[in-house]
Amino acid sequence: MRIPVVYHDRERQLPGQFHLAPEHLALDVALREIVIVVQADLAYCEDLRVRAPPADTAFRFIGKGLGVMSLNCAVAVIQLLGYNPLHLFPGNYSYYDAGVRFSSIFLGTIGNADLFSSFICLFLPLASVYYVAAERKHTWLLPAVLLGAFCIFVSGVSGGILALAVLIVAASPFVVTDGERLRRALDVAVLIALALFSAYSFRTAGSSGHLALSFVPGRRGAAVLAAAVCLLVLRLLLRKHEPGKRAVSRLAAGFSVSAVLAGFALSYFWRGTDGTIYEFSQVLHGNISDKFGSSRILIWKKVLGLVPGHLLFGGGPGTIAQRLDLTFTRFVAETGKTLSTYVDNAHNEYLGILANTGLASLISYLGAQILSLAGAIKKAGTSALGISIVCSLICYWVQAFFNLGLFLVSPLMWLVWGLLISSLSHAKS
Predict the structure, then answer these.
(1) Distance CA 253, CA 247 (A)
(2) Which of 18, 68, 347, 350 is 20 to 30 A away from residue 159, measured at CA?
(3) How many CA atoms lie within 13 A of 14 on its CB side?
(4) What is the pLDDT of residues 336-350, one digit of tens each?
(5) Closest CA to 224 of 149, 288, 298
(6) What residue ranges in 177-310 does DSSP mark as E strands?
(7) Alpha-carbon distance 141 to 58, whole Å?
(8) Strand partners, 328
């Protein structure tokens, strides 16, 4: 953190210094990406504003974020191969001991697989959408897109996968607006399809001590690979063809509508007997079980029961563990032991806000989201960085409906949100 010299007299101001009234204090944080201005005199509140990031901030921020995500995903891939890099698992434990020797699933350097998915949901859309929308073509983003997509699929966190699907459907009409963006969107789509194919084909057998790995595409994997080939052929056909903007807009809108209708139809007529799609199918048929969503339905019911007693301001930050008595147990035949876990989180960020800090807090939070999204949609075509950030936030906010919202990831969301506000301020000026 640097505190620059601030002069009121512009003639004495040197390059790199800020021209602010002496009542202001400017803090320059993290490579001048964010500046927090603290106003000492409330009479001058109209001067309080956030300085927009410079043009090259996009490269620095996206590069750093993707660098961290790629390292995290690389560690996760090594863990999936049965190894224990950095000795993140104690003793001789490994990723494949989840559900046998310990209850939760841990992946990457973050640990909890749900939080690992939240982290990817924040940075994968940032890279993907920026690649599509930027004026220049940044091919260096694609390897991180492929790695991040593979990790979120292989993690099996349904909330994160659903959030990614919702983002693709909702953002396509706003992001894919001309022929060049369509071609780049197909590049990303091919990589995501290949990542899903790899996740479907990655198989393991045995225990952590005697692990057998294999790559066997099943019927679903073959179908996804066929879709990837079709997308690649379409991408090649568009190399020398420039479709009109109106045709591209209609295509993007048609894709979104078709994807929504196809998704609901597939879920409604799903013939499977387990899994997330089966549970959603049962919900569409009016059959809701407390066990759905890894017992999230039961958890949500119990947490909602805490709300009426402290409706307006909640029971206090982080107090769900003290106010909720809910434990899950499971007998493990392989070890002859019983694993137990107690619930200390709402497993829904919005419900957690309601229970911990009350209705007033939740309304403020949702209102801030709506205002930010409204401002971003109005200026969707003015800034590639802006639309990339808003897509990143949408993906995070969707998965937050099913996730934990802990400090390991949520502060990063607040930083990204701050950059969105800064980007909108820059577009306005």
Answers:
(1) 10
(2) 68
(3) 3
(4) 889 888 899 999 999
(5) 149
(6) 202-206, 211-215
(7) 13
(8) 341
